Amino acid sequence: MRNKLQFLPLFLILATGIGRAGAPIPDAQTMAGIQSRLYHAQVYKHGDVQVTYANGLATLTGTVDNLGSKLDAVKAARKAPGVTGVVDNMQVFAGDVTAQQLLEKARHEILMYYAYGIFDNVNLEAQGDKLIVSGQVTQPFKKADMGNMLTRVKGVATVVNNLEVLPTSNFDDRLRLTVARAIYGDPFFLHYADQPLPPIHIIVKNGNVTLEGVVATTMDRTKAAMSARGAGLSFSVVDNLRVERS
């Protein structure tokens, strides 16, 4: 009997603790938690977002100026204690940004990306506030990074990431280097080779070479294609180089 009585207070203490741990969080406290997380995610720097909360459900309304901030807001709200679901009624709106400005900013972001090089090729198209990305990259992480980066461009509401990840191949890797040496190792192309990101891009897939990018003259285009074909190893060389307008 004594042993049973000794365990009784401990049982009551544990039961009381469990009851307190499971107590619902007051709505006001949950609202404050959501707003705090939105603030720390810097959502308010990119627009005006309002929050309502009831029965575990947070509803976000208002506007932000880019898709990335919209995604950040939803992610931040989900992490707030007491939130079991999020309704996203936010809109992306940046009235002072034109489609052309959006496109120029997106191009700048790609060119500044540390892993974008001469063996990758990215094309961008803007349709209103939708950004369509196509081309080829050599690694999966580049596709993911670029897609995420572009959601941060002011005015972008939708990103369609159609980038192709080129297959892994030791033969293709050797061919990339061989063609790059043939072109950029030629003194004729020194003025291109000295640029931070040379404009002739060498895309290799299953032993086939495609030249992408922009050159200054028709002679440069012809010479680059000849150098690529003269390097050997490749099954074919396709010249998609564009000549810069005067």
Your description of this structure?
With 246 residues, this protein is an alpha/beta fold. 42% of the residues lie in helices and 26% in strands. The relative contact order is 0.09.
Structure characteristics:
246 residues, alpha/beta, 4-stranded mixed sheet, 42% helix
Topology:
Elements: H1 2-21, H2 27-40, E1 47-54, E2 57-64, H3 67-78, E3 85-92, H4 99-112, E4 121-127, E5 130-137, H5 140-150, E6 158-161, E7 164-165, H6 170-184, H7 190-193, E8 200-205, E9 208-215, H8 218-230, E10 236-239, E11 242-243
Parallel strand pairs: 2-3, 5-6, 5-7, 9-10, 9-11
Antiparallel strand pairs: 1-2, 4-5, 8-9
Q: What overall form do the CA principal axes indicate? A: elongated
Q: How many E strands?
A: 11
| N-to-C order of helices and strands | HHEEHEHEEHEEHHEEHEE
- Protein structure class: alpha/beta
User: Span between N and C termini?
Assistant: 101 Å
Counting DSSP H or I runs of 4 or more residues, the number of helices is 8
Strand proportion: 25-35%
Query: In percent, how helical is the residue content?
Result: 40-55%
In summary, what is this structure?
It contains eight helices and eleven strands.
